[in-house]
Amino acid sequence: MAQPTTGDSAQGIDYIAVEESERFQGLKRMQRSFVFPMAALFLIWYFVYVLLAAFATDFMSQRVWGDITIGLLMGLGQFVTTFVITMAYVSFANRRLDPIATEIREELEKTEARS
Question: In this entry, which stretches build a coiled coil (predicted)?
Fold first, then answer.
């Protein structure tokens, strides 16, 4: 693998060059490819909930079981969705992002140790 551009070894690591490297840019693209769609889906789900609560009160107040309503279940679903997205991101990061980030960090540490 190509070493990151370090410039003059007496000056240390050129972090701008590392940030502009294809490998780091690929890491950022991979992270964004998960985060942005997930954030968009969650926001859509949240706004659907808010709009239904505001404009479809008959629907949201339908009882499902005892005093449990559709609105209450959807509200609790917001919390569940948050935890599911968090767990999915942690899993994604552990499998896909962390190995690449670790390689980049280790290369930088080696370069820094040499300078």
Answer: none
